[in-house]
């Protein structure tokens, strides 16, 4: 994997930026330019998340892999920013990062430093699936011109490597080896616990507005039926069907929220706080897979699950 990460590096200048810009209706142009502007910020957030994983990795090869991921995401941010300029006719004013993205980024990165590695990786894996399976491909299909296609082709190749390693880390964090390591760690002081919970609470309070602004609202334009978002969230849910993943405390907690949300009585009472905690639209909280899909996922290896998730990019 490290050899592949090094071999497949590329530069922003490798793209042919001289291709003609597709003319878009004014209202569509404004939204597309804003989406690429926000994408530049999302990619920088991803770089920060991989820095956290890099710094936590004890294995030097794994640290080197995560370092290439940081480089990838910074490059993706530069490409997205340049795509925003490419599609901007200059007639509709200036564009700034969405304020909800700015607020969320600060609190999310801080929260990850307090969360255990398995929970941090769960959020990172979810974000990568939403970005790769849903948002990037849908935005590319919507813009549908050569400039977008050549940029997204290379970005998607990078993101496929990221997801493969994300699934590898999910497997490790679900292992008995990680559980034993976690038990051997010194207990945090009361002050550290309080700081950690306060950090997580701030992150959760900003999650719903962030997801709405930079994922769900853009997807309403570029994938109005929400099929690709459903595919992405389904892959997240299917990971929890693996026995070793499902027995982790965080997985049990998320299962409890989903079961409560789907309960005919409790769901009506607790739907709003559960939606707030999970930070996503209610239609993505419900069970998104059939029993036979769950059985299939339990039989698959983590490598096969990763490959299945990557193939989901081409289902719709």
* CATH topology annotation: Ribonucleotide Reductase, subunit A
Largest sheet: none
Q: What is the class in the CATH system?
A: Mainly Alpha
Q: From N to C, what is the helix and strand string?
A: HHHHHHHHHHHHHH
Q: How many alpha or pi helices?
A: 14
The residue-averaged pLDDT reads: 90
For the record, give the distance between the C-alpha atoms at the N and C termini, rounded to a whole number.
28 Å
Tell me the helix content. over 70%
- The SS-based structural class is mainly alpha
Give the number of domains.
1
| Rg estimate, integer Å | 20 Å
Ranges with pLDDT <50 over ≥5 residues? none
**What's the CATH architecture?**
Orthogonal Bundle
Q: Can you tell me the overall shape? A: globular
Oligomer class: single chain
Total strand segments: 0
Strand content: under 5%
Give a structural overview.
The structure is a single chain. By secondary structure, the protein is an all-alpha fold. The chain has one domain (2-10, 24-314): Ribonucleotide Reductase, subunit A, CATH 1.10.620. 76% of the residues lie in helices and 0% in strands. The chain has 14 helices and no strands. It is globular and about 55 Å long.
Q: Which characteristics define this entry?
A:
14 helices; mainly alpha; Ribonucleotide Reductase, subunit A; single chain; 316 residues
Map the helices and strands.
Blueprint: H1 2-7, H2 26-56, H3 60-87, H4 99-112, H5 117-143, H6 146-173, H7 176-184, H8 190-222, H9 227-239, H10 243-246, H11 249-262, H12 266-278, H13 291-299, H14 302-311
Helix pairs in contact: 2-3, 2-4, 2-5, 3-6, 4-8, 5-6, 5-8, 5-9, 6-14, 8-12, 9-14, 11-12
């Amino acid at each position: 994997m490290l050899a592949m990460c090094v071999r497949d590096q590329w530069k922003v200048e490798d793209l042919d930026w001289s291709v003609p810009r597709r003319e878009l209706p004014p209202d569509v142009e404004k939204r597309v330019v804003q989406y690429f502007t926000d994408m530049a910020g999302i990619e920088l957030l991803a770089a920060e998340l991989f820095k956290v994983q890099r710094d936590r990795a004890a294995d030097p090869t794994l640290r080197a892999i995560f370092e290439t991921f940081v480089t990838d995401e910074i490059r993706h941010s530069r490409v997205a920013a340049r795509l925003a300029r490419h599609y901007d006719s200059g007639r509709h004013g200036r564009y700034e990062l969405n304020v909800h993205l700015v607020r969320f980024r600060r609190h999310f990165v801080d929260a990850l430093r307090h969360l255990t590695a398995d929970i941090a990786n769960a959020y990172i894996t979810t974000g990568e699936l939403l970005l790769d399976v849903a948002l990037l491909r849908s935005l590319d299909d919507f813009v549908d011109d050569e400039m977008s296609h050549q940029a997204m082709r290379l970005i998607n190749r990078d993101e496929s490597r990221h997801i493969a390693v994300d699934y590898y880390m999910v497997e490790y964090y679900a292992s008995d080896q990680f559980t034993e390591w976690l038990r051997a760690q010194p207990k945090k002081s009361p002050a550290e616990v309080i700081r950690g919970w306060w950090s997580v609470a701030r992150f959760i309070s900003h999650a719903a507005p962030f997801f709405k602004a930079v994922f769900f609202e853009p997807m309403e334009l570029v994938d109005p039926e929400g099929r690709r978002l459903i595919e992405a969230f389904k892959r997240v849910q299917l990971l929890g069907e693996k026995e070793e993943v499902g027995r982790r405390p965080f997985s049990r907690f998320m299962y409890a929220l989903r079961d409560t949300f789907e309960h005919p009585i409790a769901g009506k009472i607790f739907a709003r706080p559960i939606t707030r905690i999970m930070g996503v639209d209610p239609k993505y909280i419900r069970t998104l897979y059939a029993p036979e899909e769950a059985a299939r996922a339990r039989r698959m290896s983590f490598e096969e699950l990763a490959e299945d998730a990557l193939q989901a990019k081409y289902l719709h």
